[in-house]
Amino acid sequence: MSLQHFINKAMSAWMSQEGPDSDIVISSRIRLARNIAKYQFPTLASNEEMQEVLDIFELKYSDKDFNQIGNLELLKMNDLQPIQKRVLVEKHLISPNLAEHANFGGCLLSENEEVSIMVNEEDHIRIQCLFPGLQLMECLNVAGKIDDWIEQEVDYAFDEVRGYLTSCPTNVGTGLRASVMMHLPALVLTQKINRIIPAINQLGLVVRGIYGEGSEALGNIFQISNQITLGKSEKDIVEDLNSVVGQLITQERLAREALYNTSQAQLEDRVFRSFGILAYSRIIESKETARCLSDVRLGIDLGIIKDVSRNILNELIIFTQPGFLQQYFGGPLRPEDRDIKRATLIRERLNLEMERNKRMEDDES
Predict the structure, then answer these.
(1) Residue 178, marked binder
(2) Phi-psi region at 110: left, alpha or beta (left = phi > 0; alpha = psi -120 to 50)
């Protein structure tokens, strides 16, 4: 399989498109947790109940078109290979918990992969919308329409006082998790992030790494999300998060400007060294890859590097993860072999970009 074909087949919409403030905000996500009233929640349900819930989604929602989203296809976890499930986790389409523990789990996935509906994860239903850039309200609108569509066929577990009932008490109420994935290299380099994160936590928000709870902020990528789901409306939760994210965007842009104005030579040296590592390395580990990708993306955003698309960096963040590497190269790889293949894939992708730029220059001349 050629790399270009692999990219075209494997990329989700949010990887290849730009949205509002996409120089800093990589993606926006809304997730709604719901349960079906007549069944025990997945944490207590029997295998028979779990299978019945999965059957409901296969019968009523799989291969059905929904408005602008298009066809939804049900992927059953038991039908997927471990590498395939890992790729879905790396693309943020399913959770690690669903991939590892859900014997009767599934995922309804839209063709453009902006919408995924996890079945029998911690809750019976987890509706997720993932858009590029800062588009939380747009995500919420789509998720709400899907929520209404599903509820036409099933009765949700709902309490007039507490709201939507969920397996974990921290999700009771709206059942809403809103999150934004942000690239904040200047705040990290200036060490301002160390005082910003505690301040964000005091506002009822949480800062995590790229893959959520317990994950590391590789490549200076942070996930900002709400903690409070009870006592606020969905709109209020999203507006509060939008407000904080807006302030973070402002602070990151100011930090970038200050870095460039006070340390231009050092910053350019860092960016081009990282680009050289990506372009010519024969062996590269995932942490070094993430650091170099962060530096190069910052260089692109500041105009230091002019002939590379920032979307390539979005792709490579995902494509250099273990699952994607093993899928592209056709099977399981030892860690040391992954480091070699990772370097190969990065070089191939950057060569594709340079060839594209050369063709564009030739066409213009």
Answers:
(1) yes
(2) beta
